[in-house]
Write a structure and sequence with these properties.
147 residues, 7 strands, single chain, Staygreen, transit peptide, 7-stranded mixed β-sheet, Staygreen protein, alpha/beta
Length: 147
C-alpha cells in the first residue's frame, strides 16, 4: 500500500460542516490528479459533484446508521463498461482504496479525535457495477486500520 503524503492532501470544508460536526450528514468526496498525485478531500453536507470528472474515479463516503449502529459507507463506481474495462477499474480501485481511506481519515483528523468511538466503526464499501462480478458490498475494517 502506498503511504499518504500529507503535503499532497488538500482538504476543503464546505458550509454546514466544521472540523468536528456533524456526524450524520457528513459526506466525503475524494478526487485526485494523475499528473501531480495530489489528493483533494471535500467534506460537506452534500457530495462535491462539481469536483467529479467524466473518469468517475472518485471515492465517495458518508456516515450512515443501521440497526447495528453507525458505519462509514463508501461508494466507488466500477461502471457499466465491457468486462475488461470493469476488471481494470476494479483492480485500480482495490489497489488505491487503502490510500483513499487513509486520506479521508487523516484529512478529517480533528473529527476522529473528537469522536473517538468512530475510529472503531465498520467501513463498508459498495463497488457499483452492472456486472455482478464487480458489484460487491464488502467490509473493509475500521478507521483505525488506516491510521
Amino acid at each position: 500500500m502506498e503511504r499518504l503524503d500529507p503535503e499532497k492532501l488538500y482538504v476543503e470544508f464546505r458550509p454546514g460542516v466544521t472540523t468536528t460536526e456533524p456526524i450524520l450528514g457528513r459526506k466525503y468526496t475524494l478526487t485526485h490528479s494523475d499528473i501531480t498525485a495530489e489528493l483533494f478531500l471535500t467534506i460537506g453536507l452534500q457530495f462535491a459533484y462539481d469536483k467529479i470528472t467524466s473518469m468517475r474515479d472518485e471515492v465517495l463516503a458518508e456516515w450512515k446508521t443501521s440497526n447495528l449502529g453507525i458505519f462509514l459507507y463508501v461508494y466507488v463506481y466500477i461502471g457499466n463498461f465491457d468486462s475488461a474495462i470493469n476488471a481494470i477499474r476494479n483492480a485500480i480501485f482495490r489497489r488505491e482504496l487503502p490510500l483513499a481511506l487513509e486520506a479521508i481519515i487523516y484529512g478529517d483528523n480533528e473529527f476522529f479525535a473528537t469522536h473517538t468511538q468512530l475510529n472503531y466503526t465498520p467501513i463498508w464499501i459498495y463497488f457499483d457495477s452492472t456486472d455482478p462480478a464487480y458489484n460487491p458490498f464488502e467490509y473493509w475494517g475500521t478507521p483505525t486500520d488506516y491510521k
